[in-house]
Amino acid sequence: MRQDHLVTSKQLSRADVEAVLDRAAEIDADPGAVADRHAGSLLGLLFFEPSTRTKMSFEAAIKRLGGDTVDMGAVDASSVTKGESLADTVRVAAGYADALVLRHPRQGAATMAGEFVNVPLINAGDGAGHHPSQTLLDLYTIQENAGLDDLTIGIMGDLKYGRTVHSLSYALTNFEADQHFISPESLQLPREVVYDLHLEGATVREHEGYEAILPSLDVLYVTRIQRERFPDENEYQQVAGEYRIDADALEAAEDDLTVMHPLPRVDEIAPDVDDTDHAAYFEQAHNGVPVRMALLDMLLGDGDE
Amino acid sequence: MGMSENGDDASHQLRVSKIHNGTVIDHVRAGQALNVLAILGIDGGDGESVSVGMNVPSDRLARKDIVKVEGRELSQDEVDVLSLIAPDATINIVREYDVVEKHRVERPDAVSGVLSCPNSGCITTADEPVTSRFEVLKDGVRCGYCGTIVREGIADQIDT
Ligand SMILES: [Zn+2]
């Protein structure tokens, strides 16, 4: 496999992360300086699952670098199973574009796709697997607000199916980060993920409620608990209710606690948190553009200058 | 040199015949003998002469299975997969009633194309031109695509 695919956050060393975040900070400070840097470059968008946000963010990033996109368009689920193989689709797309962004419902899809193409490929989500560009923008946001070392972070919500959570927790093992995982028992981290975190020397601390740990956190990363994870509405309402935060609940936190969320949120963060100094989730969403610009700039290289 | 017995410390307790030319797989974890046959694709249909001893007392394992196959020497691929379900096994190659080679199985770092992933959401279980790949861990195997770890029931994942 090419070394310049970005498939999982596990492949990122501390130096890799720092290189992307440094470049993102440079770009964020002066976006005009790179406005034509990749004029003529085409980014291929292969989204086998809808994701307006991630897709828009990549589109904005390549266009702000002077490039453009070629988009496979919307795919409905049935044609994914009946249509041509993913291996064929990515090989064809690699002939049209200078780099590819892939989102696919199956785990390992990006790993496999990367074996078939000779342009850089970015995994933008493979089922319950990985979403490393989200991780990089999360890390950038944490760095800007709290710093990545000497960090105490609580990650809360659906930790079982939440790929952003898995990717983030792997990447944080590169830093001096104390990670706390807060979820109902049925939505704890998959054992595979715990295995990997242990392998990286991380301590996995799991909690069923946030109250006890909240006062010691620098960052609280909230994710959505989805209705479909529960057999009935009542149980969902009851469980999900225990993982909602509002301005009142945050009274117990340090003044400089940073609250993050990959968005979209439903009601797990009350709107009254938006007006507090804790809220960093809109800034986090904005950071997707400079971070993806940095990533694309590094993957596309200097070929256009 | 010629070790005279068929490579078996308990053969006197075992009413299985010595073989002429072939392989004796000894020190198979008790209960895995039939899986060993499955891996080797041996169902008796090709007329091989096969003897199986199950739950035989052993020095090294409390109980072990033993498999003797006439007229068949194992390939490296077969030994690799064997090592996943019978990590303590010894392979004895027999020619003219003598053990001419005797070695422990060694667990490879990875196996390709011999196991299928139990995760139905894994890309390798879709209709894609991809060969399964598993990293061999100390206590299981892990899909090289989706990361799923299989610890128990590895034999059930063997591609047939
Ligand atoms: Zn798999």
> What would you say the CATH architecture of the largest domain in chain A is?
3-Layer(aba) Sandwich
Number of alpha- plus pi-helical segments of chain B: 2
Order of helices and strands of chain B: EHEEHEEEEEE
Report the structural category of chain A. Answer: alpha/beta
Total DSSP E strands of chain B: 9
- The structural domain count of chain A equals 2
CATH fold call of the largest domain in chain B? Alpha-Beta Plaits
Biggest sheet: strand arrangement of chain B: 2-3-1-4-5
> End-to-end distance of chain A, in Å?
27 Å
Strand content of chain B is 25-35%
Task: Identify the CATH architecture of the largest domain in chain B.
Answer: 2-Layer Sandwich
Q: Which CATH top level class of the largest domain in chain B fits? A: Alpha Beta
Pathway (chain A): Pyrimidine metabolism; UMP biosynthesis via de novo pathway; (S)-dihydroorotate from bicarbonate: step 2/3
GO biological process, one term (chain A): 'de novo' UMP biosynthetic process
Domain Aspartate/ornithine carbamoyltransferase Asp/Orn-binding (chain A): 150-298
Organism (chain A): Saliphagus infecundisoli
Note the main attributes of this structure.
heterodimer, A: alpha/beta, Rossmann fold, 2 domains, 10 helices, globular, B: Alpha-Beta Plaits, SH3 type barrels, five-stranded antiparallel β-sheet, four-stranded antiparallel β-sheet, binds zinc ion
Provide the fold topology.
The complex is a heterodimer of chains A (305) and B (160).
Chain A: H1 14-29, E1 42-47, H2 52-64, E2 68-71, H3 77-82, H4 86-94, E3 99-104, H5 109-114, E4 121-126, H6 132-145, E5 151-156, H7 163-172, E6 177-182, H8 191-199, E7 205-207, E8 219-222, H9 233-241, E9 258-260, H10 281-300
Parallel strand pairs in A: 1-2, 1-3, 3-4, 5-6, 5-8, 6-7, 8-9
Helix pairs in contact in A: 1-6, 1-10, 2-10, 6-7, 6-10
Chain B: E1 22-29, H1 33-39, E2 50-57, E3 63-70, H2 76-85, E4 90-95, E5 98-104, E6 110-112, E7 133-137, E8 140-143, E9 149-150
The complex binds zinc ion.
